[in-house]
Design a protein that fits this description.
Blueprint: E1 17-33, E2 36-50, H1 59-69, E3 72-73, H2 75-88, E4 94-107, E5 114-127, E6 132-145, H3 147-152, E7 159-170, H4 176-184, E8 189-190, H5 197-208, H6 214-226, E9 231-241, E10 248-256
Parallel strand pairs: 1-3
Antiparallel strand pairs: 1-2, 2-4, 4-5, 5-6, 6-7, 6-8, 7-9, 9-10
Helix pairs in contact: 1-2
Length: 264
């Protein structure tokens, strides 16, 4: 018995669809970054364009693609996965969004005790015969210490945990850990999951010696991003979860490097 493939029927409404596919499919894979590999679980959105005369896409092919071709993933292989999906679905343009936690095994600054710290990573890409693009979004938690509080207080200064979000258009040669290190180096102090007393003393004093407003943090990170040739454009956000206010301090810098002029 022949079973009809209904989505292959022609459609007479003459209306193309920009994106059609599946959302929020969770899938385990091994992520490779700068020689480091780790198992993780991602949430995937996969879609393609649909021609004006085609009734439907082949939804099952998206799932099959991940099961057959996404046991391992890296920034470099993400473009290959995009191309393979677009060709498999017989489309002109394909889109993939993948969001997953990434862990770094960090050594405490004095005792060297190791612990895992998590970062949220998103990869967004599109592929066609004409062009391909990859954007990465990273949420990097850091510490910031208030310069004003340090200046006016007789005892100490208030500090807080801050989230730095970098959304960047990148080439295939950069690594997740490269961007994380770039961000952490511009904070009052970086974060660790596990600190012994000598480590806690060190990071507390480090932050005290390196106070930064949210404006300082976002500008210093932007300067570092401007020097990174593998980042082609970016939107940078800094949010300080204030410890003495019931609100956050917030700053944003956007830069399409091809049109950037210092001081503009």
């Amino acid at each position: 018995m022949t079973i009809e493939d209904v989505q292959n029927r022609p459609d007479s409404r003459n209306m193309p669809i920009h994106k059609v596919g599946i959302k929020d499919l969770r899938h385990p894979f091994v992520f490779t970054d700068n020689g480091h590999t780790q198992a993780t679980v991602g949430s995937f959105n996969l879609s393609v364009n649909l021609a004006h005369d085609q009734k439907g896409t082949h939804m099952s092919r998206f799932v099959a693609l991940l099961n057959e071709n996404c046991q391992q993933l890296s920034i470099k292989s993400f473009t290959e996965l995009l191309e393979k999906m677009t060709r498999l679905l017989e489309a002109k343009t394909g889109y993939i969004h993948a969001e997953f936690p990434y862990f770094i095994n960090k050594s405490a600054p004095v005792t060297g005790v190791k612990s895992l710290l998590d970062y949220q990573v998103s990869l967004d890409g599109n592929w066609s015969k004409a062009e391909s693009n990859i954007n990465i979004t990273l949420v990097v938690p850091v510490t910031s210490l208030c310069p004003c509080s340090k200046k006016i207080a007789d005892y100490g200064a208030h500090n807080q945990r801050s989230h730095i979000t970098v959304n960047a258009k990148i080439n295939n040669d950069i690594f997740v850990e490269d961007i994380i290190k770039l961000v952490e180096q511009q904070a009052s102090s970086e974060l660790y999951s596990l600190l012994k007393r000598p480590d806690e003393k060190h990071v507390t004093e480090q932050a005290y010696d390196n106070p930064k407003f949210v404006e300082d943090v976002v500008r210093d990170i932007a300067n570092a991003l401007n020097e990174e040739g593998r980042i082609l454009a970016y939107t940078l956000e800094a949010e300080n979860f204030e410890s003495i206010h019931n609100h956050s301090a917030y700053a944003v810098i956007k830069n399409n490097k091809s049109t950037y002029t210092a001081g503009a």
